[in-house]
Sequence to fold (721 residues):
Amino acid sequence: MVHIHEKTLQDLEFPKVLKQVSELCITPLGNESALKITPFKKKEDLLYALNLTNEYLSSFENENRIPNHGFDAISKELKLLKIENTYLDVHGLKKLVAISTTANDIILFLKKFEEYYPTLNDFASHIQVTKVIIEKVDTIVDRFGDIKDNASNLLFELRQSINSVRSKINQSFVTALNMYHNLEFLDDIRETVVNNKRVLAVKAMHRRKVKGAIMGNSKTGSIVYIEPETTLQYSRELDNLEYEEKEEIIRILKDVTNFIRPFLPLLEDYQSFLTRMDIISAKAKYAQSLNAILPEITNDKSLFLRNAYHPLLYLAHKKEQKKTYPQTIELKQDSRIIVISGPNAGGKSITLKTVGLLQVMLQSGMLIPVHERSKACLFDRVLSDIGDNQSIENHLSTYSYRLKQMNYFLKKCNKNTLFLIDEFGTGSDPELGGALAETFLEEFYHREAFGIITTHYSNLKMLANELPHMLNANMLFDERSLEPMFKLVIGQAGSSFTFEVAQKNGIPYGLINRAKKKIERSKVRFDQTIAKLQKERSKLEKTGQSLKANERKKIEEADKLEEINNRIQKKLESYQELYDSNQRLIYLGQKVDDLADKYFNNKQKRALMDELFKLVQIENSKRKKVNKKEKQQQKAKENKVKQEVEKKVKVIRAKKKEAKQKAIEAPKPKPVLKVGDRVRMEDGRAIGSIDKIEKNKAVVNYGIFTTSVSLEQLELVEAKK
Fold:
């Protein structure tokens, strides 16, 4: 039976996660219920809940999206249905129709796509699908939310009578209006409405002359509002009919409510089902925002969280566009307890909280942000002691409070427990507190509990080194800048870098030396050794990364060389083929030349033809007989090569043409004109010589006459020699 204390949930900030999940709900009931999520008591229920969330998450990625589950709460209507002789109003009935329709749609959808959503279909399959409620309400309520005229025979007759009487009221009122208007008894506005009734606006001086009931007067008293006597009797009849209509509507609503009352358990199921769907949907949306998955749940006690993110930190950093550093941590039978040490602000507490929070989330049916190859087991209890727990209300110091916590741990701790303790042993005399903390840790170890602790105490680091199923771990720091690298390294204790950090923060070196002398030499040496080892570890980490980068580079270069080698090999082969072909042609050429020489000397045509025929036969005997298919393949290859060559030639020609066009289009630099140059107008033929140039204008002499022209309009024919 699982039990996780409320205090642990608070320590791990689980309520903050629930608040973020609740904000993703789309109904008020879902929002309220999400805030009350707690870890599951039974493993079967938990695995079922995890599968529900995982299947809903998968619906975001495929085309078969689950229908909308939004609904208006019917809690008030359900309460009324439990009380005899009550009835639901039209708005309440419409809500019942809406919730029935929504629930039916989702249940039928999940049945249809059972292959995609087996667990969700199983979850919905026990709820009855019925249209009886929807059909019953639809027979009496129209789409505008009004009771239909044909909801009952009596209502139909009453509404016809009401319409008839209203028509008579209007006719009688118009008659009275016209009569008194002609007598000039009415004000300019003539009529108005008082208490939903048409009344005459009579001048006060004529009020006694108009028969009817006075319904009121204007603020100044100059107008009196009178309902004419002729309409009064019809108004009374209308009131009676409207009262009867109201009574009949109540009777109809009671009848429908009594019909629906036996369906009360089903309606409760609908509301409960849709609320659960809202929570499942919110969990799936939250998982999507974290890139969360369902890790493998193991039966044996082993936990392997690879690339695990703290959900709250991840989402906060995502908003601010900052990087979040994941951690990889493993707990199993032969390494049950991890002791994380090292300086503050390195991420020790966050690592511890990440493991705790992810475990609690998982055991509450939520997916977690880890790598898909991660594994998780389930614990009966998760115990935590995190943060400064000084209790002002109980007048307890931090140390007293922590001792009370340790006492609680000792009562509850067993092999199915995960314990998380931040800054173990602090709050008292370092020597005595450290010794007591060591004893507690030994006790937890012997009880085979699983746990993670953070500490600065050397004796706890040494204990972790001595016990076979306990491991040291540290958060990596840069050995030069002492800046955190936010990476957990298992297998080695971390130095607190007390003196190094003090020196980095400007504390005088003399004071640091005095401090070193005041503590035991062995302790300083121990811390120095750890610090040195940690620096070496950091260097090795960097060297490893550098070697990996170099290895990747070398592989890339080797691949490139391999590719170049293959290309060269192909070229060599083609050159060899070309050389062989040329050699053959040279040989044939020599043979033909010898025959020609022979013929030149002896002029024997038959001997020449015989020799040529023999030469051709020898060459043909060397050729392979090529079948038709191979010829076709050869031809296809040749065509392909031809097409590729033509394509390349086409591109080269286009480029050349473009370059030529640009060269033609490029404007030639305009020459600088001087006195004595022979010129002509850009659009003219007559040639003259420049006599004088002043302010961008030239005086051009054409022999018969001279003219002043802008230099820009002239082009050079011949420069002065």
Observations:
- The mean pLDDT is 84.
- The two ends are 114 Å apart (CA to CA).
